[in-house]
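Example 4.3 (complexes with small molecules)
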Amino acid sequence: MTLPDIIRLFPTDASCRELLERLRWPKGVRCIRCGGSVSPLGSRLYQCSACPKQYQFAVTTGTIFADTHLDLEKWFLAVLLLCEARKGMSAQQLQRTLGVAYKTAWYLCHRIRAAMATAERPALTGVVEMDETYVGGREKSDKRGRPVNSKKEIVIGIRQGGGDLRFFKAEDVKSGTIEKYVKDNISTEVEVIMTDDSAIYPKAINAHPLMGDYRGKHKTINHSSGQYVDGLIHTNTVENSFSLLKRGIIGSWHKVSAKHLMRYLAEMEFRFNRRHRSDLFVDTLRHMVTANPLSFAQLVK
Ligand SMILES: [Zn+2]
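Answer. The structure with zinc ion bound is encoded below.
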């Protein structure tokens, strides 16, 4: 999908709605309360006769698009721009490109990102690399203008060889914390988990040769001795993902607060995991009309 494609295929509110309806109800429009059949009411609404008071709704009701006063055509352009920006796009950039108010651009980024964060995360398997990195840390100064060191955020990266990436903002790098990310994201059927020789991993991965879920599957690479690649055992691919992340944060985000870092990570992860797919735009829209509005409300809280 290119910008000219979007402009040609979705020039009107009706054409946008038609796509959203197909994504939300692949088997035809159903009542969002009772699941029953409905009849159209005008060009946007549907009415259910089974529900009390002849319940009416639109394709945007109960979704990330709800309560928006912005044209769907503009939403579609914003989704494409965010999908195509490999290192992410700031609200300021979107404001300039779309010619909308800053507040609107911020709202768009926020909502699209929230939809991306609802993507499913199947367990990683095969050859998996894991590493941690530190990002952000706002430049702050005290009353006299002297720089004050602020806390950097810890990001855990887990990546399946030739496959998906997971990013997490971690509270600390204690083995108990890391262990949770390992268990939640790496299948026990994994072939091997590769990390550097940091002391946190042996405990967190629990790969004793005779017991534990990942027995004998943990391999390390000795970074401290300058040895980075030992045959198959390396953490280069996850490190490449970190460098993309850092360039994104420097290039388009400037300052990432802890609160927004999680959403930014979700956005980077979503885009990266769909890098070979041609339906990134449509897949993002699908998440926007099918994401559970409740989880969405929690995300933007
Ligand atoms: Zn109903």
